[in-house]
Write a structure and sequence with these properties.
This protein is mainly α. Helices cover 76% and strands 2% of the residues. Strand 1 and strand 2 form a beta hairpin. The radius of gyration is 17 Å and the shape is globular.
Length: 265
């Protein structure tokens, strides 16, 4: 138990820094590491991967608050964009989490692996969408939010790896895109967590203590650390060579994708 707690605290620290530094949140790290922790403790079961997704989203609620508060102080959050994209985010994420809990775990893991490779490739090659249009109105942002929310619920992330490119494509500066993405991460995480709680109620055979598909020891450990490290990530984003850090993070994503694929095969 002590080893698991240390893993979750370290995981939360890393997730917090990534949320502030790269605008990608920590879900891409949290989900595989929770799954790995379940495995080493002999807690593998039919529902543990759903628990990894749900726990990741629940913890990102607090990471997001800490992160977007720090970005707000630097006036990097476009609140009108957050307001217009949130309705689609809430609907897409909630119904996405409901759908995900009925998708076979093997299929969800393959989707996660593909997503890791997609994000890793974009980061390593520094692929950025060209600013091609202004930020759309309520309808356009809601539709984009629904897609971002649904995909995020399938992989247990706060949506930064989708929201930042979307806002960049809409001619938003990178610092504003990262700050706004951090704020958008909160409704994604909230709706996703609620969805995984609701869909996990009454299911027996899951490791405890838990609420629905939220594994409480991992949740509290990750939140306790990430709340303190997210502001640090924001500060570092204005001083460190983010492009080089993204390449290093991309290599980590490739390694995790390879490890997950090896286990499946």
């Amino acid at each position: 138990m002590v080893t698991s707690l240390l893993i979750f605290l370290v995981l939360g620290s890393v997730a917090g820094v990534l949320a502030g530094l790269l605008g990608v949140g920590g879900g891409l790290i949290i989900v595989p590491m929770i799954t790995y922790t379940f495995d080493i403790r002999g807690m593998s079961g039919e529902h543990t991967y759903y628990m990894a997704l749900g726990t990741s989203l629940a913890s990102i609620m607090f990471t997001s608050i800490s992160s977007f508060t720090a970005h707000h102080r630097k006036k990097a959050v476009l609140w009108p964009v957050v307001k217009s994209i949130t309705p689609g985010i809430l609907l897409g994420t909630f119904f996405g989490s409901k759908l995900a809990s009925h998708i076979p775990i093997g299929a969800l893991k393959l989707f996660f692996i593909v997503f890791l490779l997609y994000v890793g490739t974009n980061m390593f090659l520094n692929i950025k969408p060209k600013a091609a249009r202004p930020v759309p109105g309520f309808a356009g942002n809601s539709l984009a939010g629904a897609v971002i929310g649904m995909v995020s619920s399938f992989v247990g992330i706060g949506g930064g790896s989708l929201t930042v490119p979307y806002l960049t494509w809409c001619n938003v500066s990178i610092h504003n895109a990262i700050g706004t993405s951090a704020a958008v991460g909160f409704p994604i995480a909230l709706a996703g967590a609620v969805g995984y709680i609701v869909n996990g109620l009454g299911i027996e055979g899951m490791p405890g203590p838990h609420v629905g598909f939220i594994y409480l020891p991992a949740f509290f450990g990750i939140v306790a650390a990430s709340m303190f490290t997210a502001p640090l990530g924001v500060k570092l984003s204005h001083t460190l060579p983010v492009a080089s850090l993204k390449k290093a993070f991309a290599c980590l994503l490739f390694a995790m994708a390879a490890q997950m694929l090896y286990k499946i095969l």
